[in-house]
Backbone:
């Protein structure tokens, strides 16, 4: 059984020069790895970085043509009249989707393999969770910038969330009013979209870039989890790692551009358009939260919002909550079961949100759903753990 590593809480060690670097490494922080480090699942973080760089570059191009005075028509102008504007806008959207999906995959992989403990990985994990939240919030702000009917519905939900949720009841009224003013300004179109654009471009994107740099530095200081190579097994960072990262990044961008050309983004109805018989449904990455807002008639104060906040706090503190001595998936049963619970819950909420948007379920139905997911998640993991131990005992006998 692979033992879990010990966390290093001495922050001053981060500024000290590393000793005994693996062969082929550079003192600036680019470490060599073994051949195991080239597995696809080990490179999801690199692809998130590729997506972030592409979003910055394509976002700068779109920024030159976007107008917060008339956001919808400026978006139409980008699609119709700017050379390659449609494919740039579409690829900006699809790369955001890819980035969110990769962040989910990257985080859950680290969860299941136990890579959030040892050296500086506990701090990597905390910053990674912050990056996950910033990625979602940045995507939502970008989603609002087109001034479509569904974008404005998201703005109104955001205001309602601040005013009526458990956060709005706990935080001081003056702070809530200030946060609302930061989001919408004085409620005029130019002020609203100036604020949204500033938050999307200057605040959240800048924070993402800064925190990602620290996250990457911590990864280079900690190295790959559980990798204990022997001398002569290391592959030099240059040129192998560099070429691998560049090539895989180019392939990723190429795939997104091909998909963008094949399935260009369709701009939905502008805010204020008459659309009888339609119900706004948000993008897939918002749908689980959107559905949790109206589960079981519990409301924003006692329903989805506290559940989301509780799960986020648990995820953030996971390196300190997990006290198991081993890293195996079945050696940390309730941690693994809770991860499966979250994955199933996200999938169910997404499908439920798309199939029955805005339709509140009964409390009995909601309790049945969540207890069923809990039972499936925990009974499966503990049954597999029991079967594994039973098999080990049989082999020993």
Residues:
């Amino acid at each position: 059984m692979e033992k879990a590593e010990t966390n290093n809480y001495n922050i001053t060690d981060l500024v000290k020069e590393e000793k005994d670097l693996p062969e082929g490494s550079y003192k600036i922080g680019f470490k060599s790895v073994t051949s195991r480090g080239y597995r696809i699942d080990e490179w999801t973080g690199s692809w998130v970085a590729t997506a972030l760089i592409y979003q910055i570059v394509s976002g700068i191009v779109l920024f030159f043509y976007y107008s917060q005075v008339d956001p919808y028509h400026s978006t139409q102008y980008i699609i119709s009249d700017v050379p390659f504007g449609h494919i740039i806008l579409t690829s900006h959207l699809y790369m955001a989707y890819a980035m969110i999906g990769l962040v989910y995959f990257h985080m859950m992989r680290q969860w299941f393999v136990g890579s959030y403990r040892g050296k500086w990985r506990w701090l990597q994990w905390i910053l990674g969770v912050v990056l996950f939240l910033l990625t979602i919030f940045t995507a939502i702000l970008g989603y609002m910038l087109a001034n479509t009917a569904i974008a404005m519905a998201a703005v109104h939900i955001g205001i309602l969330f601040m005013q009526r949720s458990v956060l709005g009841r706990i935080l001081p009224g003056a702070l809530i009013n200030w946060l609302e003013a930061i989001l919408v300004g004085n409620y005029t179109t130019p002020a609203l979209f100036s604020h949204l654009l500033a938050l999307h471009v200057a605040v959240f994107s800048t924070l993402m870039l800064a925190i990602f740099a620290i996250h990457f530095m911590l990864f280079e200081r900690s190295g790959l989890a559980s990798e204990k190579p022997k001398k002569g097994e290391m592959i030099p960072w240059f040129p192998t790692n560099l070429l691998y990262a560049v090539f895989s990044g180019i392939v990723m961008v190429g795939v997104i551009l091909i998909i963008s050309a094949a399935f260009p983004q369709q701009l939905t109805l502008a805010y204020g358009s008459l659309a009888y018989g339609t119900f706004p449904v948000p993008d897939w990455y918002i749908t689980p939260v959107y559905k949790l807002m109206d589960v079981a008639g519990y409301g924003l104060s006692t329903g989805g919002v506290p559940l989301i906040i509780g799960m986020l706090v648990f995820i953030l503190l996971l390196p300190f909550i997990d006290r198991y001595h081993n890293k195996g998936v079945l050696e940390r049963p309730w941690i693994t079961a809770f991860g499966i619970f979250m994955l199933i819950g996200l999938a169910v909420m997404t499908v439920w949100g798309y199939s029955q948007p805005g339709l509140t379920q009964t409390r009995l139905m909601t309790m049945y759903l969540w207890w069923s997911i809990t039972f499936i998640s925990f009974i499966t993991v503990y049954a597999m753990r029991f079967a594994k131990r039973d098999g080990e005992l049989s082999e020993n006998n």
Notes: DSSP finds 15 helices and no strands in the chain. The chain has two domains: 29-268, 320-397.
